């Protein structure tokens, strides 16, 4: 049993009725493992709270699991399902208001509808941010028509958690190697690239108050900061940046430990991003919540860093007081 630290966990998944991942979308999971995940995703009551208690997690920020609404082709259906997800989550949060918070689900197929839904979720339902599961039907968030969404994020002053989603079938790098798809590797490549598109498109210069979160220890980006700066400084291709990529990332990004329970990448993230920019998460139910809690309690970091990672950074980022 870990020492209780009133941990806050930010990447904790659920699935609303009608948006459960299909068997094709999770085919890479071992069937025995998948059975446990499928049972845990819709459960937002006794069993989840018991697991949180055992792990010393005071608050879980819940989000609709991937692919969510980002892969739905029918625009009206995507908008309807996003609203349904948020209403479902709001009713479940009310059953344990001291323990659950929510990230909004938005259908970016219709940008105006996504903006309105985000406002509703923050201002009326009490959510603390928004989570987007990757590209929306293959379209990334640096595209110009998403500008109103970024303006609303700044106005509301809430973070965007950029989570992996379905990777385009056109990606030739993984053809013939299905073992590299999904959480093993392709999701990391796609999500890190998604964030770097925002940096190199200078979108974050146009939206200086935008705040982002990446899971999985920053999807390898903390490890790559020096090289990103070095190579961006000598390239002749594309846009000229007004500052090094690492500076933009440090200004706008915090990362979580979700799905990574190892000391070396944790220390790298803390050193590269700063003690203020790393937060605890478990990736429940895709990862073992108890393993994650036990690991962070024992990780070879200072006690001050441990408290920041486990709770105080999240309280600041999510405006929890």
Give a concise summary.
It contains twelve helices and eight strands. The protein has 321 residues and is α/β, with parallel strands linked by helices.
Describe the overall structure:
- It is built from twelve helices and eight strands.
- It has 321 residues and is an alpha/beta fold.
- The chain has an eight-stranded parallel beta sheet.
Order of helices and strands: EHHEHEHEHEHHEHHEHEHH
Largest sheet: 8 strands, parallel
Mean pLDDT: 93
Number of strands: 8
What structural class should be given to the helix and strand makeup?
Answer: alpha/beta
Radius of gyration (CA) equals 19 Å
How far apart the termini lie comes to: 27 Å
The low-pLDDT segments are none
Number of helices: 12
Main-sheet strand order equals 1-2-3-4-5-6-7-8
State which percent range the strand residues make up: 5-15%
Tertiary shape: globular
Measured as a percent range, the helix fraction is 40-55%
Topology:
Blueprint: E1 7-14, H1 31-40, H2 46-55, E2 57-64, H3 75-93, E3 100-104, H4 111-123, E4 129-133, H5 147-156, E5 160-163, H6 186-200, H7 203-206, E6 212-214, H8 225-232, H9 245-252, E7 253-256, H10 263-273, E8 278-279, H11 289-298, H12 303-317
Parallel strand pairs: 1-2, 2-3, 3-4, 4-5, 5-6, 6-7, 7-8
Helix pairs in contact: 2-11, 3-4, 4-5
């Amino acid at each position: 049993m870990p020492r209780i630290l009133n941990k806050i966990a930010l990447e904790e998944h659920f699935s609303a009725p009608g948006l459960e991942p299909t068997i094709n979308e999770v085919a890479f999971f071992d069937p025995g493992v998948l059975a446990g995940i499928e049972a845990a995703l819709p459960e937002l009551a006794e069993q989840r709270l018991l697991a949180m208690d055992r792990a010393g997690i005071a608050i879980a920020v819940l989000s609709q699991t991937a692919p969510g609404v980002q892969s739905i082709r029918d625009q009206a259906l995507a908008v309807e399902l996003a609203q349904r997800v948020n209403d479902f989550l709001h009713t479940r949060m009310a059953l344990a208001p001291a323990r659950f918070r929510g990230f909004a689900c938005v259908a970016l197929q219709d940008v105006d509808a996504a903006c309105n839904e985000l406002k509703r979720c923050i201002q009326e339902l009490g959510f603390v941010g928004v989570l987007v599961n990757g590209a929306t039907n293959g379209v990334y968030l640096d595209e110009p028509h998403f500008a109103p969404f970024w303006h609303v994020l700044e106005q509301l002053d809430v973070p965007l958690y950029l989570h992996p989603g379905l990777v385009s079938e056109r990606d030739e790098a993984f053809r013939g190697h299905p073992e590299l798809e999904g959480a093993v590797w392709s999701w990391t490549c796609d999500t890190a690239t998604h964030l770097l598109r925002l940096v190199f498109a200078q979108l974050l210069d146009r939206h200086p108050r935008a705040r982002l979160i990446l899971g999985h220890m920053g999807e390898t980006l903390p490890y790559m900061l020096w090289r990103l700066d070095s190579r961006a400084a000598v390239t002749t291709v594309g846009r000229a940046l007004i500052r090094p990529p690492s500076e933009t990332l440090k200004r706008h990004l915090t990362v979580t430990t979700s799905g990574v329970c190892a000391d070396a990448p944790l220390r790298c993230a803390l050193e590269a991003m700063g003690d203020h920019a790393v937060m605890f998460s478990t990736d429940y139910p895709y990862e073992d919540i108890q393993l994650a809690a036990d690991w962070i309690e024992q990780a070879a970091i200072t006690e001050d860093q441990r408290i920041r990672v486990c709770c105080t950074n999240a309280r600041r980022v999510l405006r929890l007081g």
